[in-house]
Input
Amino acid sequence: MNEVKEALRNIEQNYKLFLQQQFTFIGALQRTRENAHDSIRPVASVGQVQSYMDHHCNNSTDRRILNMFLNICNDLSKLCHKLETVHSGNNVTNGILERCKLLLSHSNDLSTIRAKYPHDVVNHLSCDEAKNHYGGVVSLIPIVLDCMKEWVTHTEKLPRHVLYNTSGGSAISEKRARQDAPARAAISQTPPSVHPEAQTSTSNKDGVQAQGSMHVRKKNLNDTENHSGKLKGPWKPPGRHA
Output
């Protein structure tokens, strides 16, 4: 997750540099659209900007700023795929990622999207530019950045075990390990099985020991009786001794 946040911060820094040159970006789009004889329709997709740069860009300044825009979009697309590997996904986070991927698609129509407050990129355009030409393309990056920040916020509220671990293991394997733990504990507590012959031998040995102890008790009792008999003879009436 820290790696994702760092990548997002780097993209934001690049975007801040790009934002300072928004007028240069709009000027580059105007010139390349004129060169392409495409001044009527709005700039409505990332693929359209790519086509202007590849086929209708005549100076290095325009090429640099158009390429900067495309590189930021490309970095955002790569980060989207990275987010999919970091988190197994739920309805909320998957929905956010799908929206980001759709917005960044080269063929997606951006003409109707608009970045809202606190973003002021649309306010820096004239009414005609904002409504008919560039309002969508300048709104793309701030909207996607907001979506990714929202993804991070939702993901950080989830239990830690839902995240993929950094060593490459998945949340599924971690969950399975926790589920298997009681079974492993039960196995470790089960006494080792004894072979039937060993059980028979043990029971015979116990029987012999029990019989031996009973025999010893009987013998001791007999010895005691005999000994007491030797010490005291049978009782005889007085005066009639042989």
